[in-house]
Write a structure and sequence with these properties.
two-stranded antiparallel ribbon, 35% helix
């Protein structure tokens, strides 16, 4: 799972839920997160909490 490896390499915490993944970002990780969204073509779904899904 390349995305999970990339998240772990970046030190970004996440949990897997039935609807998708919950990502826990620190302010310092915003740029890395944005680059991962582009790299993996991620779609961020605004919910409480936000979920992501691959396209």
């Amino acid at each position: 799972m390349a995305l999970m490896d990339a998240l772990e390499d970046a030190g970004i915490d996440y949990t897997r839920e039935p609807e998708g993944y919950v990502i826990y970002l620190r302010d310092s990780q915003t740029e890395v997160w944005e680059s991962l969204c582009v790299r993996f073509n991620l779609r961020v779904v605004e919910e409480d909490p936000p979920f992501i899904a691959g396209s």
